[in-house]
Write a structure and sequence with these properties.
Strand 1 (45-49), helix 2 and strand 2 form a beta-alpha-beta unit. The protein has an eight-stranded parallel β-barrel, surrounded by seven helices. The chain is globular, with a radius of gyration of 20 Å. It contains 13 helices and nine strands. By secondary structure, it is α/β, with parallel strands linked by helices.
């Protein structure tokens, strides 16, 4: 389609040069896409934050945890901190990534911040360009715009988000929306286009300005192939679709989301990941709720089929003592050839989540600089 070609031209024509090819390539990366592997880590490590809400806590508590996590990640050498978009899920408080990212930008000074991701079919491309243009103005050179084509929720909620007639859009609609968003970000609709005099502000119409690099996200081959065609970096959701990871990583720069949780003991780590597994079981069976406590997860009367699901889910989580988690992440990096690992820690306790990232940083000998002052 011509719109896909437009998106490719805009993406590849940017002054930052895109992702710059595979890790170790000769081209200098000025986009912030490529980070450095910290300490003894095999590749750059980053944070994927679902802003989970545990039973007995509130969204306010979880958002405060996200600030603490971003500040810890910045001080310990994690490359970026991304926030996901989910809707109508009581156990997740990240329905508005742009709002959360603005708050995180106010409490950090160096770490890259971004969406993991914005579900583009839920939004008008102009609105996304305005939101992330504003974020770029607030935190110049630190913003990533990761885009997905799933709704981030169930069909009924997606219909409420998108309005009548848009729930069953075809697969070709996503490349068209991506092309339109790219044009708004670059302010380069051609003469005669209906939007030629429509400008996303903050944006280039106000003068020379940077803009967030675009990423595509996915858990299937569609977005991976599109990322390869357009020369865009790609992030694969290994943390909930591990089986398709290897075929999906054919992109100029590929990150994978990884469920990982470290604790002082194997038993403690297992207790925390069990809470996330039960939360996912309830979501998959139409009973979403707050993330349960470890005690509730341990006492839950699993049926044999439920136990099979939970055991399979936990098997895809890299968890245990810090050294065991580091060994697991090293192996995953080798097997997949990923350029970056984005770690998500789904647990009942916000303190356990923050502690996990600190323990992983310790295991890899990552820097220990104090968080920047507010």
């Amino acid at each position: 389609m011509s719109d896909t070609g437009d998106a490719s031209g805009a993406a590849n024509g940017r002054s930052d040069g895109g992702a710059g090819g595979p890790a170790g390539g000769a081209r200098e990366d000025r986009s912030g896409i490529r980070g450095a592997a910290p300490g003894r880590a095999p590749v750059p490590l980053s944070v994927l934050d679902l802003v989970t809400v545990g039973a007995g806590s509130t969204a306010h508590d979880s958002l405060r945890t996200s600030v603490a996590l971003a500040r810890l990640a910045e001080s310990r050498g994690y490359h970026r901190h991304w926030v996901a978009e989910h809707h109508s899920m009581p156990g997740v408080a990240s329905s508005s990534p742009a709002v959360i990212l603005a708050h995180l930008a106010a409490h950090t000074s160096r770490i890259r911040l971004g969406s993991g991701g914005v579900m583009l079919p839920n939004h008008a491309p102009l609105a996304v360009a305005e939101q992330f243009g504003t974020l770029e103005a607030l935190a110049p050179g630190r913003i990533d715009l990761g885009l997905g084509r799933a709704p981030g929720t169930d069909g009924r909620t997606a219909a409420a988000l998108r309005g009548p007639g848009r729930l069953e859009e075809g697969a070709d609609e996503f490349p068209r929306r991506l092309a339109e968003l790219t044009r708004f970000l670059d302010d380069d609709f051609p003469d005669g286009h209906p939007y030629a005099r429509v400008h996303a502000v903050p944006g280039p119409v106000q003068g020379p300005v940077g803009r967030p690099p675009l990423w595509l996200l996915g858990s299937s081959g569609f977005s991976a192939r599109l990322a390869g065609e357009l020369g865009l970096p790609f992030a694969y959701a290994h943390h909930f679709s591990a089986a398709g990871t290897l075929p999906a990583l054919d992109a100029p720069y590929a990150a994978i989301g990884v469920s990982a949780l470290a604790a002082e003991t194997d038993a403690e780590a297992r207790a925390q990941v069990a809470t996330g597994a039960l939360s996912m079981l309830r979501l998959r069976t139409g009973r979403p709720g707050l993330v349960p406590t470890p005690e509730e997860a341990a006492a839950y009367p699993y049926t044999p089929l439920e136990r099979e699901f939970v055991d399979g889910w936990v098997a895809n989580i890299v968890h245990g003592t810090p050294d065991a988690v580091a060994d697991g992440l090293d192996g995953l990096a080798r097997r997949t050839g990923a350029d970056e690992l984005m770690l998500t820690a789904n647990a009942h306790s916000g303190a356990a989540r923050v502690r996990s990232y600190g323990l992983i940083a310790d295991a890899y000998g990552m820097p220990t600089a104090a968080p920047a002052a507010d």
